[in-house]
Amino acid sequence: MGAAAIALVGAWEGLRLVAYPDIVGVPTVCFGETHGVRLGDQYTKEECDAKLLASLRRHEAGMRRCLKRPDVIPTRSYVAFVSLTYNIGVGAFCRSTARKRLDRGDLRGACDAARWFDKAGGRTSQGLVNRRSAEHKLCLEGAE
Fold this sequence. Notes:
Layout: H1 3-13, E1 16-21, E2 27-30, H2 45-66, H3 75-88, H4 90-95, H5 97-103, H6 107-114, E3 119-120, E4 123-124, H7 126-143
Antiparallel strand pairs: 1-2, 3-4
């Protein structure tokens, strides 16, 4: 995980220095952080950058633990899956068809399955459709 994952996730999550309710009402701050966040919490840009890096590392580590061979995933695809895992959570990624297909060596199928995570609160979110489309494109660049 490196600068590419930070840039991708940061761009899609957006930076908010004061906590706000997300699309389904979960208190959220910085680059989409929800753990332990209360409405009204405030952070500096530097604190948010540090939170993003630490959270990406946790999500990546969790993703790697549930994959049989994470080191064979091409770099661009890997970054797309880190972004997905950050957004949906380690548990959801580890239970996903995308993870199952990755473990079978079906990279293209895994990239396709990752697109299914386009709902928030049970409703399709155009923002998530757009994000999954961008991640899908990046993911397929690794599959070529």
